[in-house]
Write a structure and sequence with these properties.
heterodimer; A: 342 residues; alpha/beta; Rossmann fold; 7-stranded mixed beta sheet; 5-stranded mixed beta sheet; 14 strands; B: 337 residues; 5-stranded parallel beta sheet; two-stranded antiparallel ribbon; 43% helix; Pyruvate dehydrogenase (chain A)
Chain lengths: 342, 337
C-alpha cells in the first residue's frame, strides 16, 4: 500500500529533508521548537509550533538551527532577509499570515526588492511559511487568506498547495529556490491525509495541476477550494456536467497556459477563491481570461469567493462566509443556462 | 586622559591617511552632488552625509570586506567608508547603467554586497533587523565578522529599534548599533521626538553597553568603535554607540532648513570634523600639512573623474526594466517570460 501521511507531516518532512541536504537551512519563528532555555524541558517534549507542524525538528537539528524567536515579526523576518542575502537559506515561519501587518516592510520593501535595487548583485533565498484560511473558528485576525497581497508585489513567489503531495514537493522547491517565496499552509488542511512518497522530490513553480479532467466548465480553485470544487464537480457530474478543476499551485508565477488551454477546451470559467473578492487572485485570473481568452468564452466568467467582509467568528456566519460546493454548482448552473440543466 | 593618549598614539600614519582620505572623499563627493543637484540634472531624492564623516569613517576603520554594514537614506558616506567605488556610486546617483546597482537603486539604495555594504535604505528603521540577520549569519557560520547598523535619531523611535536590538542582545550577536544623532529627524528635533536624554541611555533596557561620543571627533568615534568591535568579535554581543553630530545640508536636497538656528555656523566652521582631524594630525606630528593638502587636491580630482564617468556613462537599456526581479526568470506583467 502506498504511504499516506498528513499535510502537516508532509510539510515537516520537507523541512527535515532540506536541513539534511543543506547545512545553511535554518528555521526561525515563534515557538518553532518551543520552550527555549527552559531547563527542565527535553527537546522531545518541545511544542514544535502552535499546531505541531515543526515538532521533532529540534531533536534532529538542535536549537542552533531551529531557532525560537521573540514575538517580534519585523525583527526576525527582517533578519531572515539578510541572513538569506549573506549566505544562509532560512525558513521563517510567520505563524498566521494575518501577522504580516507586523512585518510587511521587511517582506515588501526589503526582501522583495533587494535583488532589483541592487541591480541583480544579491539574492534572497528565503522561504516564509505561513498559515492561512477560514473555517477554524479563529475569527477575523487569524483566518484571512492574504496570498493576493503578496502576488501583487514583484520579487515574491507565492505558493499555495492543496494536498500533502503538493505541499512536500512545493516546499522543497521553495526552500531551494533562490528567490523570496511565501508558502501558504491552510490550517484546516493540516490533518488531511494523502499519498506522499518518501525521500526528496520537487514540484516546479508555474505548473498548474489538473486535479480533475472535464469538458464542460473550467473551475480554477485555489488551496483548499480545490476540495470544495471537487465536491461540486461530483454533484455536477450527476447531472451530466463534467468540470475540469485546475489547481494553479503557485500564483506567482502563474501558469497562464494551463488555465487558458482548459478554458479553450470548456468555453466556461469559474474561479473559486476563499479570499476576499476585491483586487484578488480570483479577479486576476478572471482578468486573464478576459484579456487572453475572450474568444474561448461562451459565457461570462463567474467568481465564487468570500464576501467583502472580515472573517466572522460565529460558526453559523463563518459557514456562509466560505465558498461551498452548492455555491459553485449554482454558479455553473447560471452560466450553463438551459443548455445543461442540472 | 591617559587612555585617550594611548589610543591616539595607536593611530599609525597609514591608518590616519586612510581615515583622512575617506573623510575627504565623503565631503567632496557630497559637496559635488549638492552642486550638481542644484543644476537639476539629478533625478529623485538625495540626502547628503556631509558633516557626519567622522562616524562612518571611525567605525569602518575597524572593518574589512567580510564585515557587513546596513545603512540609511543618508547612505553615501557609509558606502564610501566601506570601500565602494566612487565612479560606480556617482553613476548610480545619475541612474546610469554603470552604477553599482546598474542604475536601478539610486541614491537611496546604493549597495555593494561584495564590499559588505548591504545597501542604503529608503525606510527609516529598516536597518535594525537587517543588521541582526547579517550578524546571525556571522554567528552561525563562525566567520568572526561583525555587522554594523548605522541609523539616525529618527529611527531610534521606530519599533524595529526595539525588536532588532533586543534580538541581537538575547542571541549575543556580533552587531554594533551606531546612532548618528544629528539633532533632527527631518525637521523634528531629537528632544521633542525621543523620551530619553540620550540614545545611548536606551542600551540599559537591553542590558548591553551604551555610550555617547562626539560624532565630530573621528578619533573618539574610532576608539568607541574599537571597544564595540572587539566585544562583538569576542562573542560578547552587541553595543550601542551614539555619535552626536550635525548634518551640513538639509534633510534632503531642497530643504530650506528653517528649523536650524545659529548653531549651524559653528558646526560648519569651528566644529567641522575634517578641520578637527586635520589639526589633530598635524599637531600630533602624524602627517604634515603638505601631505594632507595634497590628499585634498587628489580627492577633488577623483570626484571630478567620478562625475565625468557618470555623465559619460550610458543609460540602462529598456530590457533591463524586466531583469533582476527574480533569479530564475524575467517578468513581463504578471507572466513569466
Amino acid at each position: 500500500m502506498t504511504r499516506q501521511i498528513t499535510f502537516s507531516q508532509a510539510v515537516n518532512e520537507a523541512m527535515a529533508i532540506s536541513m539534511r541536504e543543506d547545512q545553511d537551512v535554518i528555521l526561525l519563528g515563534e515557538d518553532v521548537a518551543g520552550g527555549a532555555a527552559v531547563d527542565h524541558l527535553q527537546d522531545e517534549e518541545a511544542w514544535g509550533g502552535v499546531m505541531g507542524v515543526t515538532k521533532g525538528l529540534v531533536q534532529e537539528f538542535g536549537r542552533d538551527r531551529i531557532i525560537d524567536t521573540p514575538i517580534a515579526e519585523a525583527g526576525y523576518v527582517g533578519a531572515a532577509v539578510t541572513a538569506a542575502a549573506t549566505g544562509m537559506r532560512p525558513i521563517a515561519e510567520l505563524m498566521f499570515n494575518d501577522f504580516i501587518g507586523s512585518c510587511l516592510d521587511e517582506v515588501m520593501n526589503q526582501g522583495a526588492k533587494l535583488r532589483y535595487m541592487f541591480g541583480g548583485k544579491a539574492k534572497v533565498p528565503l522561504t516564509i511559511r505561513t498559515m492561512h484560511g477560514a473555517g477554524f473558528r479563529a475569527a477575523a485576525q487569524h483566518s484571512q487568506s492574504l496570498y493576493s497581497f503578496f502576488t501583487h508585489i514583484p520579487g515574491i513567489k507565492v505558493v499555495i498547495p492543496s494536498t500533502p503531495y503538493d505541499a512536500k514537493g512545493l516546499l522543497l522547491e521553495s526552500i531551494f529556490d533562490d528567490d523570496l517565496v511565501v508558502f501558504f499552509e491552510d490550517k484546516t488542511l493540516y490533518t488531511m491525509k494523502g499519498e506522499v512518497p518518501e525521500g526528496s522530490y520537487r514540484i516546479p513553480f508555474g505548473k498548474a495541476d489538473i486535479k480533475r479532467s472535464g469538458e464542460d466548465v473550467t473551475i480554477v480553485a485555489i488551496g483548499k477550494m480545490v476540495h470544495t470544487a471537487m465536491k461540486a464537480a461530483d454533484e455536477l457530474a450527476k447531472n451530466g456536467v463534467e468540470a475540469e478543476i485546475v489547481d494553479p499551485r503557485t500564483l506567482s508565477p502563474l501558469d497562464e497556459d494551463t488555465i487558458l488551454t482548459s478554458v479553450e477546451k470548456t468555453g466556461r470559467l469559474v474561479v473559486v477563491d476563499e479570499a476576499n473578492p476585491r483586487c484578488s487572485a480570483a479577479t486576476d485570473i478572471a482578468a486573464l481570461a478576459a484579456d487572453k481568452g475572450f474568444d474561448y468564452l461562451d459565457a461570462p466568467v463567474k467568481m465564487v469567493t468570500a464576501p467583502h467582509t472580515p472573517v466572522p467568528f460565529a460558526p453559523s456566519l463563518e459557514d456562509i462566509y466560505l465558498p461551498t460546493p452548492d455555491k459553485i454548482v449554482k454558479a455553473v448552473q447560471e452560466m450553463t443556462g438551459s443548455e445543461l440543466v442540472l | 586622559m591617559s587612555q585617550t593618549q594611548t589610543n591616539q598614539a595607536a593611530i599609525s600614519k597609514e591608518e590616519a591617511a586612510w581615515m583622512f582620505q575617506k573623510m575627504l572623499e565623503i565631503r567632496h563627493f557630497e559637496d559635488r552632488v549638492h552642486e550638481i543637484f542644484g543644476t537639476g540634472v539629478l533625478p529623485g531624492f538625495v540626502h547628503l552625509y556631509a558633516g557626519e564623516e567622522a562616524i562612518a569613517v571611525g567605525l569602518c576603520s575597524h572593518l574589512d570586506d567580510n564585515d557587513y554594514i546596513t545603512s540609511t537614506h543618508r547612505g553615501h558616506g557609509h558606502c564610501i567608508a566601506k570601500g565602494c567605488d566612487l565612479d560606480g556610486m556617482m553613476a548610480e546617483i545619475y541612474g546610469k547603467a554603470t552604477g553599482l546597482c546598474k542604475g536601478k537603486g539610486g541614491s537611496m539604495h546604493i549597495a555593494d554586497v561584495e564590499k559588505g555594504m548591504l545597501g542604503a535604505n529608503g525606510i527609516v528603521g529598516g536597518g535594525f533587523p537587517l543588521a541582526v540577520g547579517a550578524g546571525l549569519t556571522h554567528k552561525l557560520k563562525k566567520t568572526g565578522g561583525v555587522a554594523v547598523c548605522f541609523f539616525g535619531d529618527g529611527a531610534n523611535n521606530h519599533g524595529t529599534f526595539h525588536e532588532g536590538i533586543n534580538m541581537a542582545a538575547i542571541w549575543n550577536l556580533p552587531v554594533i548599533f551606531v546612532a548618528e544623532n544629528n539633532g533632527f529627524a527631518e525637521a523634528t528635533p531629537f528632544h521633542y521626538a525621543s523620551s530619553c536624554k540620550s540614545i545611548a541611555d536606551r542600551a540599559i533596557g537591553y542590558d548591553i553597553p551604551g555610550e555617547t561620543v562626539d560624532g565630530k571627533d573621528v578619533v573618539a568615534v574610532r576608539e568607541a568603535a574599537q571597544r564595540a568591535v572587539e566585544r562583538a568579535r569576542n562573542g560578547e554581543g552587541p553595543t550601542l554607540i551614539e555619535c552626536v553630530t550635525y548634518r551640513n545640508y538639509g534633510h534632503f536636497e531642497g530643504d530650506a532648513q528653517t528649523y536650524k538656528g545659529e548653531e549651524k555656523v559653528k558646526h560648519l566652521n569651528d566644529l567641522d570634523a575634517i578641520k578637527k582631524f586635520y589639526t589633530y594630525l598635524t599637531e600630533q606630528g602624524i602627517m604634515t600639512e603638505e601631505e594632507l593638502d595634497k590628499m585634498d587636491e587628489d580627492v577633488r580630482r577623483d570626484v571630478d573623474r567620478a562625475v565625468e564617468f557618470a555623465e559619460k556613462s550610458p543609460h540602462p537599456l529598456p530590457e533591463q526594466l524586466l531583469e533582476d526581479v527574480y533569479v530564475s526568470y524575467k517578468t513581463d506583467g504578471g507572466a513569466v517570460s
